[in-house]
Amino acid sequence: MEPRDVVVIGGSAGSLGPLREMAAALPADLPGSVLVTIHVGEHARSRLPWLLSRAGPLPAAHARTGERLQSGRVYVAPPGCHLLMPGGVVELSNGPRVNHARPAADVMFASAARWFGDRVVAVVLSGLLDDGAVGAALVAQAGGLVVAQEPGEAAQPSMPRAALAAAPGAVAVPGGKLGEVVSAMLGESGLATWPRPERQEGEAAEVRMEESSDLQFLSPGETRLTRLACPECGGALAETVLPHISYYRCHVGHQFGPQSLAAAQAESAESRLWAAVATLEETAALARHLARHTDLGEDAVGQQTTTADWATTLAESLRTQIQQARDRPPPQEAERSEPGR
Questions:
Q1: Residues noted as catalytic
Q2: For residues 159 and 193, what is the distance between their CA atoms, to the nearest angstrom?
Q3: How many CB atoms lie within 10 A of CB 247?
Q4: What is the pTM of this model?
Q5: Where exactly are the structural domains of the chain?
Q6: pLDDT digits (tens, 9 = 90+) for 274-293
């Protein structure tokens, strides 16, 4: 029986503080590799490896494709790339965004669950919405352990709370104790203190839609097609039902937890409403231009004037309704900035 030796950490807004505390508490001879995905803007310059190296004894750096995982090192997902680890070798992917983010914790957690199974400890820190919840469920399903920052003390409790709900065997730990608890789970001694949970059936290998002739295409493991459209690309979303959480994925590969999908749909709906306002305003302007600058005859000019008035009234009404709706508390949006801002 192999000891646990892979730690994957995911977080977002408000996660920098507990992450640095955790880095400070991990010992220099940690018997495992640490991989970190924190939401950051895709074109941002991230100083996270430098901050983590200064915080504790373990060297941290942005992960690079092709390097093999080593114990006692911290690998940080760089901006704009998902962090995977097939066969224990780092792979950076600029594939479809997951939960409206790249890098996403769910992608890293799912890769760890697939390749390392019950050797994984997944940690979910402060953050908005529910990135990491599906990945936590997959880690638990593969026999790994899940730890979440205590939601009551997290700056943004949504991510750890969602992980605890998706993986009922998960442990809630105060931020200041995370390093100590995770360290105790690793190595040979960790097996005695933290017995392995029962492993369930893992995910099947992915199959792409272009390889199929089935118009009702579902990837292995997906439960059913829905009538929902992907907020990223417009493709049909399939639902995958796990014991304690469902998630949604289009055939391109964009994926959403339930809270992230709700936020993305709300954002998409607003974009479409503003597009309707733009179309109506353009319709009104063109109709007035035709009425004033072309020889259309009296009836045609009257028609264009009527069209312009109709489009103007609708545009003004829709603009007012959108702005009034935005004055109400909006759904939380997936954050795309450095943690802790």
A1: 12, 39, 131
A2: 27
A3: 27
A4: 0.86
A5: 6-193, 211-256, 259-326
A6: 999 999 999 999 999 998 88
Segment 66-103, tens digit of pLDDT: 999 999 999 999 999 999 999 999 999 999 999 999 99
pLDDT in tens, 101-119: 999 999 999 999 999 999 9
Q: What fold, for 6-193? A: Rossmann fold (3.40.50)
